[in-house]
Amino acid sequence: ELVDQTYIMVKPDGVQRGLVGEIISRFEKKGFKLTGLKLFQCSKELAEEHYKDLKGKSFFPKLIDYITSGPVVCMAWEGVGVVASARKLIGATDPLQAEPGTIRGDLAVQTGRNIVHGSDSPENGKREIGLWFNEAELCQWNPAQAPWLRE
Ligand code: DAT
Ligand code: MG
């Protein structure tokens, strides 16, 4: 199967609320491979590029203010089916609609404070990882548990 990559980010509210470890754990326990991780204060320019498809929406300025309001935790995760699976682990955009058991369903209450981002396609996964990380910040490694996760 094809291995893909997704960009996951704990948003400023997730960092402020002390949910960084909890959110990383969900992906780690599932069995995906972490290939990049950093705490980062992003610029307005980077936030706007990341969310460029939403430029023109009424909530866009507030979204940019929110994402740049404090440090975020940037992550790159890799695995077969990781993009779609991460979206399921994260849950619906509106946390009140997100199923219990998902990150947003368990830990958030409002769309404008939905604590985590996940890429919506393998193409955007690659694009966003390229946007948020330098090549030197990404690690290729062989997790010891690999043969216990996939036959
Ligand atoms: P997702 O983050 O689930 O991929 P999205 O890509 O449609 O959702 O939107 C990106 C972010 O923008 C989302 O996490 C929160 C914000 N947002 C989306 N729709 C919104 C709305 N109707 N009102 C306020 N914020 C919104
Ligand atoms: Mg999205």
The gist of it:
By secondary structure, this protein is of the alpha+beta class. The protein is built from eight helices and four strands, in the order E-H-H-E-H-H-E-H-H-E-H-H. A four-stranded antiparallel β-sheet has the order 2-3-1-4.
Write the layout of secondary structure elements.
Blueprint: E1 3-10, H1 12-16, H2 20-30, E2 33-40, H3 44-50, H4 60-67, E3 72-80, H5 82-90, H6 103-107, E4 116-118, H7 122-132, H8 146-149
The protein binds 2'-deoxyadenosine-5'-diphosphate and magnesium ion.
Family: Belongs to the NDK family.
Enzyme class: transferase
Cofactor: Mg(2+)
- Helix-strand topology string: EHHEHHEHHEHH
Tell me roughly what share of residues is in helical segments. Answer: 25-40%
Tell me the number of helical segments per DSSP (H or I, 4 or more residues long): 8
Characterize the main sheet. 4 strands, antiparallel
**Which parts are unreliable, with pLDDT below 50 for 5 consecutive residues or more?**
none
Q: Overall 3D geometry?
A: globular
Share of residues in strands:
15-25%
What would you report as the Rg, rounded to the nearest angstrom?
15 Å
List the ions, cofactors and other small molecules found in this model.
Answer: 2'-deoxyadenosine-5'-diphosphate, magnesium ion
CA-CA gap between termini: 12 Å
- Average the pLDDT over all residues and give the rounded result: 98
E-strand count: 4
| Biggest β-sheet: strands ordered side by side in the sheet | 2-3-1-4
Q: What class, by secondary structure content?
A: alpha+beta
Protein name: Nucleoside diphosphate kinase
Family: Belongs to the NDK family.
Catalytic activity: a ribonucleoside 5'-diphosphate + ATP = a ribonucleoside 5'-triphosphate + ADP; a 2'-deoxyribonucleoside 5'-diphosphate + ATP = a 2'-deoxyribonucleoside 5'-triphosphate + ADP
Cofactor: Mg(2+)
